[in-house]
Amino acid sequence: MKRTTVVALLTLSLFLGACIEDTGGPSASPTTPGGAVSTTGAGSATATRPAVLLTPGPDTPACAADSALAFLEVQSYASFKAYCPTFLPAGFVFEDVHFEEAVQPGTPVPGPGSVVATFKRDSPDASLEFVQGRPELSVITDVRTSSEGEPKDTPYDGFEGSLFDKGVLARSPDGFTHVITADGLTADELQQIAAGMQAVAP
Predict the structure, then answer these.
(1) Which residues, at least 6 apart from 167, have a Cβ–Cβ distance to it below 8 Å?
(2) Quick one: 185 exposed, middle or buried, by C-beta within 10 A (0-12, 13-18, 19+)?
(3) 4-39 pLDDT, tens per residue?
(4) How many C-beta neighbours within 10 Å does residue 26 have?
(5) Domain that holds residue 40
(6) What confidence tens digit (pLDDT) does each residue in 136-187 have?
(7) Dmax of the chain from CA atoms?
(8) 99 and 191, same domain (yes or no)
(9) 165 and 87, same structural domain?
């Protein structure tokens, strides 16, 4: 009788252990906060997907290189307005857009984070990176230090930006930073890109 009881208890323990494993109990890998959420599907998302995703509407801009849906998805993670380019020189293709959470120095509270988007062109070789929100200081200083001469004012969806040789720096009316970093483009092309930036959601 005792032997039957021991066998039954062992069987029950094994069954409960399997249930914990299947339902994501102690042995499951935890979701890591503060990671990037990519819309390309190349890797697994490291942040909780929002309950409601934005969908295209009558006010959704025609984002260049068929990137509107990707920008709308990443906008659902951001607490600030994300902007997409509505003009890119011929040959550019969309690579990736993702949201990166940021932690304020000295505190565990996440900051507003940033939206990072990349586009590229194979012939002639050129690349573009858009960073919006609260980017690291190095992202801003790289544009300044890699450029020659004084910046010029340039329109940026209704507010002013600064046009450099290697990119554009702007600050939106809600106080967020916008950085366009470019390689292989002319100043005229950069100015057209900046002027064509539009918020993906009202």
Answers:
(1) 143, 147, 179, 180, 181, 182, 190
(2) buried
(3) 444 444 444 434 344 333 433 333 222 223 344 544
(4) 8
(5) 36-199
(6) 889 999 999 999 889 999 999 989 899 999 999 999 988 999 999 999 999 9
(7) 91
(8) yes
(9) yes
